[in-house]
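Student: Hello, beginner here. Can you help me understand the protein record under this note? Any guidance would be welcome.
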Amino acid sequence: MALIDLLNISKHYEAQKILENINFHVDEGERIVIIGKNGSGKSTLMKIVDGSLDADAGERITRQDLEVKMLSQRPEFKEGQSVREAVKDGLKELIDAKIRYDELSILLADDFENRNLLDEHSKLGHYLDHHSAWSLDDKIERIIEHFKLKEYEDKPVLLLSGGEQRRVALASLLLQKPDVLLLDEPTNHLDVYMVEFLEELLLKEKFTLVFISHDRYFIDRVATKSIEVEDCKLREFKGGYSDYLTQKEEILRTLQKQHENLLRLVKSENEWYSRGVRARLKRNEGRKARLMELREDAKTNPAKIRKMSVELEREAKNFNRDKSVNRQKMLFEVENLSITLGTKKLIDDFSTRILQKDVIAIVGPNGSGKSTLLKALLGRIKPTSGVINRGDFTIGYFDQHREMLDDSKDLIETFCPNGGDRVDVQGKNMHVYGYLKNFLFPREFLDKKVGVLSGGEKNRVALALLFTKKVDILILDEPTNDLDIPTINILEEKLVSFPGAVIIVSHDRYFVDKIAKKLFIFKGDAKIEESYQQYSEYLELERELQELSEMEKESVKEKPVERVKQKTLKLTYKEKIALEKLPSEIDELEAQIDEKKNCLADPKCYEKIGITVLADELAKLEELYEQKVEELLSIEEKVEEIENS
């Protein structure tokens, strides 16, 4: 059912055409992502859909009494309003409707044939259903918790940062659940756990949604349709980002000569998605199927929960064997680093080495200390304890405040401070326009002052400037914020080909998966875990382990207590010895299994030993490994029973 129709819409700003004779439709239940380069007209289209901007020509038709609401980039709040009050602002109609519905339910208990009361009761029921407003207090509490606003709930909202205020505005809009929700870059200022919560909420509550985003995993999970804005026209693609990539590549093939560079980027992106993301999704589907089976089995055999938990923990552990090449030049040696700011300990006893070809992503919740670690590496923050030993090398640094840019200079002056119009890029001398064209800047931008550019355009300038510097290591703090997807693809290509080390802080799961070879994961308790997994793979395992932990707690509650047996229960001498030895034996078997698997993947290795012999040896090792794990789990379960007795 159509909720909004834009027919033959055109919009110009002075002499510049933005949209030319376009048609756009929003049907109930659709989740439409608007894709395109910065400046292509995405936000203009969104504002016309919202009705807050008039088109120069064409017609906007909406269903009668349609409620359309848009997340503002700079939300406004009432003076003195607390965070909780701001989140609840706009819910008065829903709260009043629920109160009236409850009143009518009581009245109808005594007068159940009153037609007027029945009609009003039914109408309010449909209204509350549509807005998912039956338990608003629980939903308010849940959304405040998940958006990390609990600690600020009684604080005046105007004292919060811009990013925190946007989280408050987003929380309020989600609770209101308008007929059509419009979101412009909703994942900016959200950490990965908030983004996952947002995804779940939008899907579960069946929102009708139009949004702009550069978060490609978010697009792929949420969008049912993609609309690309390009050259003042709209092009429609079914599905999310993966479907868009496939269809876009086919279109570009037919226009290969005109769009050679863009085709190369899209083709590369599509190949990475098909190879990496689809393989991960297939693995995760297998694990999820096992979890579903386990839900039933666990009722009769709780030990199976623990067995799968151990398997998942060991799966994660296998990724985290030290894969560094010690012959590489060492850039940083971090020893027992601890940092406390005010009363909050952000980093506790962290040691690591960063080598010349490491590509590291620093990930974790907002406020956990990620940017603090960057500043410590840069020498801008002194450790509370511990040391950071640094080698002799040069650093290129990109921060969210774009400190390397001077607003008073134009682009020519920025890239050619000593005059002329040529720039050195990694040893190659180029005309500044030829170089900036790679970052999607048209020629007319060369004499524009940096100060008049948008946030996304400034980010592009800062990144382009960074890649002209001859440095050994790039340190980037949230580099994808305010960038469009085409620019992120360019950034990824530059980082993949960069010959030195790279350290990035980012919440963009897709970007991290594609670039990083190693993770520093902030857990939120001042501890940092190192991992060689893909970030999305790590998050999947973390979620599944959490689910297993909750299942285990439930099974313990339901399990009858056998008090008589528990009094006499104890480990035998043999079990005590096995409990000490089995973990190291299992680790050794894992190492041997890895060694055999690596040999099977290397023709030089398996030709010496024989592929059949190797396969037999691997099978025996895996069988022995399973036996040892089963034995350890059995003893650990017995220990748990003793401790609970």
About this structure: The radius of gyration is 29 Å. Residues 260-300 form the longest helix (41 residues).
